[in-house]
Write a structure and sequence with these properties.
Length: about 140
């Protein structure tokens, strides 16, 4: 009977630990986990999400731009902008893209960031610091991975 109690207790502890474990993205294949577990990130700052992505972010698509007061969405890409631009127009066959939505600037005011503008598609440490305080309102993942 003691062994059954010990086993049962161990199972409960392990299940509790697994249920409370933090959602992290260790590979591109884990991107959907972030969307499935978006409740772990919605209402929290962007910096918290970025700390939980262990895959190199090679380029970004800010919309309309990287201005703290104007940005509405930020897409994270795990390929460089040249590869992403060359991919097909079908969203389901494009490389994986994580889009983070912030609850601001729904009028999309501000100059639009484009691939041609220097620094527009790079996520610098300064960008992480400036934008890190923005509160996430939604996350969705698109692409083939």
């Amino acid at each position: 009977m003691k062994n059954i109690n010990k086993t049962f207790t161990l199972i409960i502890v392990l299940l509790s630990f697994m249920a409370c474990s933090q959602t992290t993205m260790k590979s591109i294949g884990d991107a959907k986990k972030l969307e499935i577990n978006k409740k772990d990130f919605v209402g929290k700052p962007l910096s918290y999400l970025l700390q939980n992505i262990d895959v190199e972010i090679k380029s970004i698509i800010p919309f309309p731009n990287k201005n703290l007061k104007e940005i509405n969405r930020l897409s994270l890409l795990f390929v460089n902008k040249e590869i992403y631009k060359k991919s097909t127009s079908k969203i389901s066959t494009k490389p994986t893209r994580i889009t983070i939505v912030f609850n601001q600037n729904w009028e999309f005011q501000g100059e639009k960031c484009t691939y041609e503008k220097p620094g527009c598609t790079e996520l610098t440490k300064e960008d992480e610091k400036n934008l890190g305080q923005l509160i996430i309102s939604d996350i969705y993942v698109s692409g083939k991975n």
